[in-house]
Amino acid sequence: MADLFRMWRNTRMVVLTAICAALYAAILIPFKVVPLIPGITEFRPANAVPIVCSFLFGPAAAWGAAFGNLIGDFFGGLGPGDLFGFLANLLYGLVPYAVWEAVTTRPPVPIDPNPSSPRRGEEGVLRRAFGLATLWVRLLPVIVLAAMLCATVVGWGLHLLGFHPFTVLGTVVLVNNLAVAVVLVPPLLAVLYPRVHHARLLYRDVLGPRARLPAWRAMLGVTCVVVGTVAAFSAGELVASGRWRPPWVPCRTTSGACEVGFGLVPFLGVTVGGLALL
User: What are the residues facing 37 on neighbouring strands?
Assistant: First the structure.
């Protein structure tokens, strides 16, 4: 997580941030005419961009997603809820590379079961399909985790402000994120990652290598991120629907804004603490 701040001292990372933001905004803006919740969110094919760029450009993608989403929101009308959209998209672009780097040293590309033999004819097609399927399986947990955290922060913030209930907004954002990212991220990475690697523009090429985290720290960090995210999303659904009231919440409101606002803070704190370890 320290890379989020260290990268601003690197000119190339700043340029990559601008590129990620511009790409994200450029795909977001045309789809403002396809709202799912008017004035709040719309169908977003661009939701694959932060995750793909996260694996390519690391912290530059996190800031790029945050600023790109803010630029897109400008065309739909800015409001206090956009602060939570900024934070949610920052985390959406941060989680994939941070968690992936903590659990594996393998690049997010398809695995060839028999790399020594040439890819020809039907066998080559089957091997490429197998490689893409294995990549999808490996990426799916990270995609779900990032999408859930993004949806949780957006749903939490806008319920806290009294705009939309978490049960509606959190669920819509999660489904919207997953519907696009699960389909588009694996093939896009399979095509783009080797080319960006060849150009030496991956974030570790630009920022320099990082010392491997101790196993205990990586495990604790990933566990906190997973447990905190799942608990926060589940708590948001339960509290907003009136099925549970956190005992530490000091007030009660008819809209549930106070209950959701205070109720999710400990779980989100665990998530942020886990990211800090990574």
Answer: 41
The DSSP H or E segment spanning 33 is none
- Could you give the CA distance from residue 185 to residue 139 in angstroms, rounded to a whole number? 8
Domain, as residue range, for 110: 3-211
Q: Is residue 201, in this structure, part of any structural domain at all?
A: yes
Task: Say what the pTM is.
Answer: 0.91
The structure tokens listed for 166 are 């978490």
d(CA 80, CA 176) in angstroms, rounded, equals 22
- Of the candidates 83, 81, 272, the residue with the CA atom closest to the CA atom of residue 166: 81
Q: Tell me the pLDDT tens digit for each residue of 155-199.
A: 999 999 888 889 988 888 899 899 889 999 999 999 999 999 999
User: How many structural domains are present in the chain?
Assistant: 1
Q: Which of 210, 89, 214 is nearest to 149 (CA)?
A: 89
Q: Crossing angle, helix 82-103 and helix 215-240, to 10 degrees?
A: 140
Residue 7 vs residues 3, 129, 202, 219: alpha-carbon distances, Å: 6, 36, 13, 25
Helix axes 82-103, 48-57, angle to 10 degrees: 50
CATH number at residue 47: 1.10.1760.20
For residues 111 and 133, give the distance between their C-alpha atoms in angstroms, rounded to a whole number.
9
204 assigned to some structural domain: yes
Residue 52 lies in a domain: yes
Per-residue pLDDT tens over the stretch 210-232? 888 899 999 999 999 999 999 99
Geometric angle at alpha carbon 168, from 144 and 223, rounded to 5°: 30
CA max distance for the chain:
67
